[in-house]
Specification:
The protein contains 17 helices and 38 strands. With 646 residues, the chain is an alpha+beta fold. The chain is extended.
Length: 646
């Protein structure tokens, strides 16, 4: 097969219009009859009319006595009236039919029973139809109760049953067949006890896709995986469109590889409506039609697949159920840092969102199409138009929400140095107050202080060594945050050192070994506390960074450094012991440093900050941090006095 070259990519909006106008979606799904009692969440196929009236008879609306209103006229406190039991007044309970001739009910609380018990005494006249529910008061036989394409709610189910509608014509739930393809795929069940070999990928996209389809109200079924063989994929699509499925989704094989067969199969069996969209991620999306049914080629990268589903599949499933595609809730946000983008492609940037002062701050997450964690952690999405090269820092943009707006308002925004304990801290904060979420952006200690200065976060994690005093953070705060009152709260003392491969095969023992021939390091980014620490010790030793192999190879987290060493990309990296232990790497301790949380004084009474400080005081959190290894929690929560700063 030839490679698939995207010669006619469509803008997302145009591709969506082509796809959604290519089918009569409601007719495609069809209708079915179900017991009304089981219709919750279903969509009515047409207007629904009552068979019975409700109530079907005049009935008492209160416990009391049924009377003829005219028999009560003239009764008052001064002139009580007696009504004979059995002829003029008959006892009734709520819901009882009115006796013949009665047209009102007197509440039992308003009735006095004389000792002889043959009559009731009333001191106030009744009016016709007092405390009576007339025939058809709620529902009249043959009136329309629900319009077509109405989603059935609990009250609707009860109302139809009252009206004698015991079976209901509804739209069929859309049925979607998902076909995973790829020779490199292995079933996740086969990977439970054995780590996948290099070149093998655990097949989870079908779970992801079928989950999104189910959340949209459809029924998803996943076929067995198909290897990258044209005939096998073609047979699978043929079987799917000949089945009762309303839609078919092939996952992977939609790109430009020599074994990406999806577009060829759809073209052979039917028609390709769109091949390639001007979007990043999501470019390889294929939209087609085979035997009157939509067949979608979803990209193999999970975030690309998400774009495909959000922009095309979910709207189509809404139309199948008689509903207009929903529009996402949006907020105005300010990017925490510049968002560069490529001209010619609309980009979907996943972001953390949290209100800091008057602004909702958007902090970008990993942008790779394969970074599914960018979806699990995202609060929203910023769409950069194809005709733009990005959004500058601080300039308002529109963010589409992936979480409720109130969750964004309650998010604690942390920007600064990475530490493994921050994820544990976020979990313990959530356990203490489930309303609070935590957004943590790992951009380095110095960038965290800049974010505090510019009002882009609630606090920053920092461990910047002051070379003149040997203390941490205070000198940098004096330099970069003049006039900004802050508090320094210690998170922990932690062990910094060299992360090396198991057994330390190159015998790396100190900073001097980084300059040896044959040693390749991985570094932290400029502005991080770990980078400042490294550069300080290199200067003390008179080592030129230009002579260190890998010095310019940067990672943004301690775990990123550890993974780089584990994968063989480097022999050594400077980091914390907990990161080495997490990946079963060896660790050469070099020094202990203080990691602080820098908090603007104006926010110390903020509820989110109070909860954070309360967590730091708990034995449970301290024990969880100690268990990571390489942490001294004795000073945790200690607030440091800062000198007066102009």
């Amino acid at each position: 097969m030839k490679r698939n070259v995207y010669l006619n990519m469509k803008p997302v909006a145009q591709a969506r219009e082509i796809f959604l106008q290519a089918f009569d979606w409601v007719a495609l799904a069809g209708t079915e009859q179900v017991p009304t009692a089981d219709s919750l969440g279903r969509f009515t196929a047409g207007p629904v009319f009552a068979d019975f009236s409700s109530p079907a008879y005049h009935c008492a609306a209160m416990d009391g006595y049924a009377v003829k209103a005219s028999d009560t006229y003239g009764a008052s406190d001064e002139r009580p009236r007696l009504l004979g039991l059995g002829d003029q007044a008959r006892p009734v309970n709520t819901g009882n039919p009115l006796p013949p001739g009665a047209d009102a009910v007197i509440m039992v609380e308003q009735v006095h029973l004389p000792p002889e018990g043959q009559a009731i005494e009333i001191r106030q006249a009744a009016f016709p139809w007092q405390h009576v529910r007339k025939v058809g008061e709620d529902i009249v036989s043959q009136e329309m109760l629900l319009p077509h394409h109405h989603v059935m709610r609990p009250a609707d189910v009860a109302a139809l049953m009252q009206a004698g509608v015991f079976r209901l014509e509804v739209l069929q739930r859309p049925r979607v067949t998902v076909i995973p393809t790829g020779s490199e795929l292995i079933d996740w069940r086969d990977a439970e006890n054995t780590q996948p070999r290099p070149g093998s990928i655990i097949e989870t996209n079908s779970l992801f896709i079928s989950g999104m389809v189910s959340q949209a109200g459809a029924q998803a079924s996943v076929t067995e995986r198909r290897p990258d063989e044209y005939e096998l994929i073609k047979d699978a699509v043929t079987q799917a469109v000949e089945s009762d499925a309303h839609m078919v989704i092939l996952n992977a094989g939609a790109s430009a590889g020599t074994k990406d067969y999806t577009v060829h199969v759809i073209k052979k069996l039917g028609e390709v409506l769109v091949h390639g969209i001007q979007a990043m991620p999501g470019k390889p999306t294929i939209l087609g039609r085979v035997r009157g049914k939509p067949v979608i080629g979803s990209p193999g990268y999970p975030v690309s697949a998400w774009v495909c589903l959000e922009q095309f599949v979910i709207p189509a499933l809404s139309l199948m159920q008689g509903q207009a595609p929903s529009e996402p809730e949006t907020v105005q946000a300010v990017p925490a840092r510049p968002l560069a983008s490529r001209l010619g492609q609309e980009e979907f940037i996943r972001v953390h969102l949290g209100r800091v002062g008057p602004n909702i701050v958007a902090t970008p997450l990993k942008r790779g199409a394969g970074a599914i964690t960018s979806l699990t952690r995202a609060d929203g999405v910023i769409r950069i138009p194809a005709n733009s090269d990005g959004a500058p820092q601080g300039e308002p943009v529109i963010a589409e929400l992936l979480k409720p707006a109130e969750a964004v308002e309650r998010t604690l925004v942390i920007v600064g140095s990475h530490d493994v304990t921050l994820d544990i801290l976020a979990d313990h904060i959530k356990a203490m107050d489930s309303r609070i979420g935590v957004s943590s952006s790992h951009v380095g200690s110095l960038a965290g202080l800049m974010a505090i200065r510019e009002g882009r976060c609630h606090l920053g994690g920092t461990h910047l060594l002051d070379e003149d005093t040997g203390d941490y953070n205070i000198g940098y705060i004096k330099k970069y945050l003049p006039g900004t009152p802050v508090r320094l709260v210690t998170l922990a003392l932690r062990s910094q050192g060299l992360i090396v491969k198991p057994g330390n095969p190159k015998g790396i023992r100190d900073f001097g070994d980084l300059a040896r021939d044959g040693v390749v390091m991985v570094n932290r980014q400029g502005g991080s506390g770990t980078r400042v620490l490294l550069d300080y010790h290199l200067r003390r030793l008179g080592i030129d960074p230009a002579g260190i192999a890998g010095y310019d190879n940067e990672e943004y987290t301690h775990m990123g450094v550890a993974v780089h060493v584990l994968s063989g990309g480097a022999d050594v990296g400077l980091g914390v012991m907990s990161a080495a232990r997490a990946l079963n790497l060896d660790f050469v301790p070099l020094m202990e440093e203080r990691y602080d949380l820098c908090i603007p004084e104006a926010l110390m009474d903020d509820h989110r900050i109070r909860v954070l400080l309360a967590v730091l005081a708990t034995d449970r959190f301290k024990q969880a941090v100690e268990a990571l290894g390489g942490y001294d929690v004795a000073p945790m929560g200690r607030i440091h006095a800062l000198p007066e700063m102009d």
